[in-house]
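re: the backbone from monday

yeah here it is again, tokenized this time
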């Protein structure tokens, strides 16, 4: 399974692509950060994020997209920009015909480190180890995007297999 993970942001949007299967180590395919200028109009910034994500979807042809779900912060302006970038990410995946899943930061942290309250340094360290990288991915947005992709391979891949098995049972009429 190939997954494109997206850590949405308006100034920096992390994009990480991994391949793997549940219960097995993942392999790094690519990692990028989409940057936009805070002085540019919002429409131009969102269009840049959308255009770049569409290009990565064409180039890497993922089986799924995993996007960090927006959570409440104290800085409302930051939440709004992140929510807008998140919507663009979800729409980009849907437009490309790829299944899209969202994960909260604590879901991704728990999948990667075993603790839903891990800090950025712990997350980056674990992503570096899990992908057997020589150096940590930078900036943190890139590591977070890779963590989301790994999270989906491990959690989403298993969920997809369960759903497929349930559907097969339903088709056979063996499930009540």
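seq for it, each position gets an aa:
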């Amino acid at each position: 399974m190939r997954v494109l993970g997206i850590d949405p942001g308006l100034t920096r949007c992390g994009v990480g692509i991994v391949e793997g299967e549940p219960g097995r180590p993942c392999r790094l395919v690519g990692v990028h950060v989409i940057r936009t200028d805070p002085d540019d109009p919002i429409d131009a910034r969102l269009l840049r994020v959308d255009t770049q994500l569409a290009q990565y979807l064409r180039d890497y042809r993922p089986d799924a997209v995993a996007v960090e779900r927006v959570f409440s912060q104290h800085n409302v302006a930051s939440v709004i920009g992140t929510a807008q970038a998140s919507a663009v990410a979800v729409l980009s995946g849907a437009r490309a015909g790829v299944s899209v899943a969202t994960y909260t930061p604590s879901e991704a942290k728990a999948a990667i480190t075993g603790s839903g309250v891990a800090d950025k340094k712990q997350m980056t360290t674990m992503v570096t180890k899990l992908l057997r990288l020589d150096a940590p991915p930078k900036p943190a947005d890139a590591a977070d995007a890779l963590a989301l992709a790994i999270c989906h391979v491990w959690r989403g891949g298993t969920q997809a297999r369960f759903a497929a098995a349930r559907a097969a049972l339903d088709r056979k009429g063996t499930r009540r």
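The chain has one domain: 2-172. The mean pLDDT is 90.
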